[in-house]
Amino acid sequence: MSESSVFTRILNGEIPADIVAETENVFAIRDIAPQAPVHVLVIPKTAQYRNVVELATADPALLAELVGLANAVAADQTDGDFRLVFNTGAGAGQTVFHVHAHVLAGGLSESSTH
Ligand code: 5GP
């Protein structure tokens, strides 16, 4: 049996994290190593999708719920403008294979790409 992802363990309360928002199927936490003044991860509660391509193909409504929560977090924590990043594949910097979006906002330089 494969091990739970770090995000599933956070959702289950096995690892502490600052949960800033949630909906029925998605939750949002502060990144442990922030790359911007606001750096929040928005994550489906299910761990069944490894990346955004799998999620978009199998459950576009869940992807839309995720984007909606990202927007709500950005509206709550900054002026509403934000960058939404899905690292897809190890070669692109993905380290946790439980799909998640990085919401980056506040004081972003024009060249920053996370
Ligand atoms: P990826 O590199 O897969 O796109 O993003 C994974 C993100 O998860 C990284 O930005 C990393 O800092 C964050 N992360 C990894 N472990 C933890 C943790 O235990 N708690 C929190 N809050 N974030 C984590």
TrEMBL record:
Residue ranges of every copy of the HIT domain listed in the record: 6-113
Histidine triad motif (motif): residue ranges: 98-102
Transmembrane segments: none
Gene3D superfamilies: HIT-like
Protein name as annotated: Histidine triad nucleotide-binding protein
Organism of origin: Microbacterium lacus
